[in-house]
Structures are given as C-alpha cells and as structure tokens.
Amino acid sequence: MEYLPKEPAILVSSINMLLRDEEFDSLESLCCNFDREPEELKAYLAEAGYVYSEEQKQFRPEGFDKIEN
Fold it and tell me: What gap in Å lies between CA 47 and CA 26, rounded to an integer?
C-alpha cells in the first residue's frame, strides 16, 4: 500500500488490516511509514465515529464495547 485512503470506512479497514496482518507492530509505526501523526488520524476517525483500542490494536465503531443493561 503506497498511501492511506481518505474515506473513513476504507481507512479504518486498511489500518486494521495492516495491524492485524502484522505489517506494523503499532499505530505509531504505521503512521510514521505513511508520514501521518497518530493523534491527527485518531481525531479524523473520531469525527467519523471510530475510536482506537490500544488493547485490540484496531479502530472500532464508537460504542462497540458498551454493554446495554
């Protein structure tokens, strides 16, 4: 992959794939490779309704982990 896509859903899918397939060991190393800042990427995707899980090393839809009682 030469660049990160701009469309949020495709961007999330691409980032998660690169992290899952162990192309990169962290969001920081991925961002460094694509000349992006992790906090900028997190903020951009937060606007689209995604949050980054450090534990899972992936972006997920906001509220994905919440359990309704």
Answer: 22
